[in-house]
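Researcher: Here's a chain I'd like modeled. Treat it as a single chain, no partners, no ligands.
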Amino acid sequence: RRASVFPQGDRVVTRGKDAATIVWDVATGKMVCKVCATVSQEGSGIGEWLLDEGVEIFPAGDRLLTWGRESWATVWDARTGAALCTLNRHASFVTVAKVFPDGERIVTGGVDCKAIIWNASTCQALRVFLHLHRVTDVAVLEGGRFVATASSNGWTTLWDAMSGTRSRRLMEPRGFRMKHTAGLFPFPAGDRLASFNEA
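Model: Modeled as a single isolated chain. Structure tokens:
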């Protein structure tokens, strides 16, 4: 279903349709560990576009972050497959999760209209950003200084990651109602952001 290469180039992580997340050794082709296997919840009444299942690799390659169709996300040891801690403050499905470039924080978005910044070591919530609509995507900008969030009403909002205050709204619907902001894509330098919407 999807695959990502570790920053060190020595391992690959895959996530299948059964939500099993497996780390593979590139040199030998052997499985390093099976990180988790979660079962997707069916019949939720929420659109398939909103309920993504994913995995993020920490910059140091020592940990993985996974989320599925549950109200939590989990940090795992990428060598042993042991669960290290759980991000558990969303009231409904987690739709997206990203690791900060320094590997010290995580940001998640959810159906509960919240985006939350977490301490990546303790899984304690640091900041909560409230929205009027479901959060469909998040992006980390300027090395972690700002967080951008996309909502199901088509708005993209920029937040100060340290203070938790809203910096500005980057885009609003003009002349018609957009279905949702489908994706956020920060430029490599982290100083610009591209987004696309579905009308």
